[in-house]
Specification:
Blueprint lengths: L1 E5 L4 H10 L4 E6 L9 E4 L7 H9 L3 E4 L6 H6 L1 H21 L3 E7 L21 H16 L4 E5 L1 E2 L9 H10 L4 E4 L3 E2 L2 E2 H13 L4 E5 L5 E2 H12 L6 E4 L19 H7 L6 H13 L2 H6 L5
Parallel strand pairs: 1-2, 1-4, 2-3, 4-5, 5-6, 6-11, 7-10, 8-13
Antiparallel strand pairs: 9-12
């Protein structure tokens, strides 16, 4: 299959392109130029009218995975119009064009569409976004499915090795703990983080099986961000005593964070007939990637 991936220099987009290129012909689309290894790239501004139509006509992909977004929560609070344009309006326009050309689309959403009051949310639970980022991603979900009912929408939370080396929470923990710097971990924010490489593999399975609609794609297990930091420290042999427990309420963040971002993954497990990876399995793979020099492989794609 030919796969087009937008946001191909980002944490998800780049790792997805690397994983997909093992079996598929991949075209990465991004504003940034990278030294891609194993896949081709196109530099393009998707906000320019007619750009997505031109790309689809010229590349003729079978699948389009839309990863590009404004994902920084505080930046979305400070720039609500830009967030709305990038996270909601643009995905709807891309879905309209892709659907008209018979291209199967995937939209990457977030676990943050819920209010975090109870956790273990099902796909059928009513979303209640608590910040502008989450609201625009929910608007994007609706715009995509309105334009392309056969599209896949996945609500995710992931970590992994990135182009810059500091894009994921796991890298933040790794970078600081590895150099002996003390850090803080939220004891009252619970989530299901999934290794981005595992996410990529499962997403490709979903496309191969031609699934559609909303799915929760996160780890099969939940834990606090503090406990995740401790597990990462133990996995890499770092000093877990460097991690101080703290409440998210004490941080004074601009965008409201929700406490129980855990999602139920039974629907995806059933439809793919698989067991989604747990926390320890994901961190083990994260550690193995480190030992195989995968972070260096990724960072060598950064354009100097």
């Amino acid at each position: 299959m030919k796969v087009m991936i937008t946001g191909s220099s980002g944490l998800l987009g780049l790792n997805l392109a690397v994983e997909a290129s093992k079996e598929h012909n991949v075209i990465g689309v991004d504003l940034a130029e990278i030294n891609a290894k194993g896949f081709n790239t196109r530099i393009a501004d998707l906000l320019t009218p007619g750009t997505i139509e031109t790309l689809l006509d010229e590349e003729k992909p079978d699948w389009l995975i839309h990863c590009a977004a404004l994902a920084n929560i505080d930046a979305c609070e400070e720039n609500p119009e830009i967030a709305q344009r990038l996270n909601a309006d643009l995905p709807g326009e891309i879905a309209t064009s892709a659907h008209s050309k018979g291209v199967k689309m995937v939209y990457i959403s977030t676990d943050a569409v819920f209010d975090g009051q109870k956790g273990d949310y099902l796909e059928t639970d009513v979303p209640s976004p608590q910040n502008h980022y989450a609201q625009t991603k929910l608007d994007g979900e609706r715009a995509v499915l309105d334009a392309a009912p056969d599209a896949i929408v996945v609500r995710v939370n992931f970590y992994g090795w990135s182009l810059s080396g500091n894009r994921s929470l796991a890298e933040f923990f790794f970078n600081n703990l590895g150099t002996g710097n003390p850090i803080k971990g939220f004891t009252d924010v619970y989530y299901n983080p999934m290794l981005v490489n595992d996410l990529a593999e499962i997403l490709l399975q979903m496309l191969s099986k031609d699934l559609s609609g909303i799915y929760h794609m996160v780890s099969s297990e939940k834990l606090s961000k503090y406990d995740f930091a401790v597990k990462l420290a133990n996995t890499f042999g770092f000093d877990a005593e460097l991690i101080s427990p703290i409440s998210v309420e004490d941080m004074g963040l601009k965008g409201k964070r929700t406490n129980h971002l855990t999602l139920n993954t039974d629907k995806l497990s059933k439809d793919l007939n698989i067991q989604l990876p747990g926390i320890d399995e994901g961190l083990k793979n994260f550690f193995q990637l480190f030992n195989s020099n995968y972070p260096t492989f990724i960072r060598q794609m950064k354009k100097k």
